[in-house]
Design goal:
The protein has helices spanning about 1-15, 15-55, 65-75. The termini are far apart. With about 90 residues, the protein is mostly helical.
């Protein structure tokens, strides 16, 4: 069993440069992918905030004709008597 360990160590030592190169490449690829994902998330959040701010500032105004309501309210506040201010009573 110890001979197997020695052979494995020798094989790893012989291929150490290749193994280290592969590990560095994998680490670099991982960092690049992570950076791209972070940039995408930050960009998406920035766009979302920008879009929501623009929607709020570009709010449309709606005009309403309140003349009928004002007439109705004016009729409610008028007294329910004749023009003379006297109430109708029959003698």
């Amino acid at each position: 069993m110890s001979q197997e360990k020695v052979n494995k160590y020798k094989e790893e030592k012989a291929n150490r440069k290749q193994i280290m190169k592969r590990e560095r490449r994998n680490r670099t690829i991982g960092r690049i992918v992570g950076a791209v994902i972070c940039l995408a998330v930050v960009g998406w959040l920035g766009y979302s905030v920008y879009d929501s701010v623009n929607k709020k500032s570009a709010a449309s105004q709606t005009e309403a004709n309140l003349e009928a309501m004002q007439n109705y309210l004016g009729n409610l506040s008028a007294p329910a008597s004749d023009e003379g201010g006297e109430s109708k009573e029959e003698d």
